[in-house]
Amino acid sequence: GRRNDLTALTPFAACPGALRRNKAASPKWLGVRRLRLLPSIHSLGAALGIGVKIERYEALIHELLGLSAHTDGRMGSWHHCEATTILSKICLTSLSTLLLIPSSRTFNGKVWDISTLAALSRSITESYAALRYIAVERISDDERDLRRILWEFHREADRLRMLQATVPDSPGIPQVTANRDVLRARLTQNQVFLGFRQKFQERLLEGEDNTTKSRIDLCKDAGINPNLFRGMYKYLSCYAHPSPFGLSSLYHHKAGESETLDLIDLITNWTSGLIAFSIRDFAEVFPDQKEQITKSTWDDIGEWQTILTWNFQGLRDMNHGNPQGV
User: Fold this and answer.
1) I need a labelling partner for 172 at 20 to 30 A (CA). Which of 52, 62, 111, 204 fits?
2) Rounded to an integer, what distance in angstroms lies between the CA atom of residue 168 and that of residue 174?
3) What is the pLDDT averaged over residues 132-137?
4) CA–CA distances in Å: residue 118 to residues 16, 22, 146, 322
């Protein structure tokens, strides 16, 4: 039968004290059954001698904050301005993750909140893809213009939907409607837009999509294994939403257990890689910032470039028989 004490129920229970890691334990990422269906970044990092190093995670966030501070308020093109805003969002979200990682110096010391950590990591994942889409990719002027118009069109379309749903008598609705319609007309005149299939054009005009390229393709072009991205994004989403998988895993992962810490390490490592990539790519948008980045951070970036592009079949072969293999 089920135990009724709070510590047994969820990882949100009070932290029982000092942690003891069981290095040989097989990770229990899928709830009751110890199946190895999801690639483990923890195993990838361990294979390269990286593992989870909270001091390096904190250092990457500090580096990210420095880039944000050095470029804050810069005047430039639209995509430069948007890039600084997106980076600020990644900075703030990353700082919040530190409150939820037991090994962090700023850990709240009271609860193990895996769902929120996963939701924050998913937000960083989406923000990184947006950074790539808006500012990093090398595209034509027509494509850049299309992305800006579509981005602003989606902004006004969302604003209008929210106003109509919550404040239907708002005096601002006519102006927002006019703004949306102007952007919609500009969108239909763009040569790149006209080259899309009709069904895709309709999706964009209906506000179904706010980008012309999927997150998985954006991250693939950034050097992230698409299978890893697909698996991790789904994994984080299961915790961000009340999915059967996520709820089952929360029930079976208790505060203070080594397997729960393995799960937190998995999320932390994925986030660490994205922060490293954000630093690398933001420096491409603002090349003068490259000299501000420390050698140790460039070393971390190089290691994560190796990890996130890993061939998983090769890793399975290499780790055959290893209880911590994938």
Assistant:
1) 204
2) 11
3) 97
4) 22, 23, 32, 27
